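FOLDING PROBLEM:
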Amino acid sequence: MYDDILIPTDASPGAEEAISEAIELAALTDATVHALYVVDTTNYPTLPDGKWATVEEALEGEGKRAVDAIADRAADAGLDAVTAVETGTPHKEILDYAETNDVDLVVMGTHGQTGIDKVLLGSVTENVLRESDQSVLVKNIGDRE
């Protein structure tokens, strides 16, 4: 059913739920896990080039740690894993990666924002859902009481 499952991560603690779900699904289908972290260039438009290089390096290091952790979990489940750290607009990079790597399913989390927060902040997950040619499984990772 699924040969390649993409897990985009933002390295947040909440993303753990989506990662767990994706690893379980990959184990059921013996799929290759693709772990992707995108260094979001849209978050730092006013930084001078010298400062951006420092921030970008730190974010790339965070991304490498995040995708390596997913790859380790995939290996523990007996699965093959591929990792990537890209730079750009998150939803565009996720869509490009999924298409380029023939991904069957994208598994990602959402914080479930609604109302004005959603309008003002936008949603990477929503953009992927709206524009993806691949199936997308969304795990709600919002705060729960």
In short: Confidence is low (pLDDT under 50) at residues 117-121.
